[in-house]
Amino acid sequence: MATDLIFLKRRIINAVALLLSACAAVLGLAFLAWILWTTLSKGIAAFSPTLFTQMTPPPGEAGGLANGLFGSLVMCLLATAIGTPIGIAAGTFVAEYADRHWVGTTIRFVNDILLSAPSIVLGLFVYTLVVRPMGGFSGFAGALALAFIVLPVVVRTTDDMLKLVPSQMREAALSLGIPQWKVTMQILYRAAAPGIVTGVLLALARISGETAPLLFTALNNQYWSSDMSEPIASAPVVIFQYAMSPFEDWHALAWAGAFIITVFVLALSLFARLVLLRKRVAHD
What we know:
This protein is mainly α. It is 78% helix and 0% strand.
């Protein structure tokens, strides 16, 4: 009798836990769908080809987001170019040379802190490190702030992907007398490449919508500028400023910019998932 009561109690608790988990999942998905629907519906209504050909306008005039999209593209590509090789090198060192050493543990701990640090803190760090000594805002400072966001994502992804490579592959290659650096470059990287590329794409998707670090580093520019040593426009900052304004035409441009960034991030995320899916199919 006592055993039946305990069994019944566990089943009731399990059912309540499942019900609460399902409710939480549905609530989260509902808010996500609401956000996506609002962004897509308002963004499509304001979308036009002139967004890519005209610069940000003053209130009451027609215009687009060409200078902001160009600035975002340049800074994101430069940040990826800075953060990716450093992140892959650091992740390789942690996974292959310092896996069980205190140095590797320390690097992983610091990387986890950097991974969870608010982006505005990284922006303030670059502001103190670069903007103030240089005497002004610049595109280079913005790219550096975004690179600090790319770096921990790539380090973590490279570390995880290299550890997933079977140790038998390392042992077989080393037993043939191949140097360890060649094993890493020609065997391990080939096996882990899809996962590492996925991490880089996800990092690129993340920095595409970052606003806070750019407010302290690249600031903004109403005009077209490709000079990275000067303030440069970016789509997230333009969206932030236009959304905070009292002008309806600026609100429409902000929704259109949010729509473009959302579609870009969704496309990158889907592409990253496809890369991982191809790897799994190839291994199966």
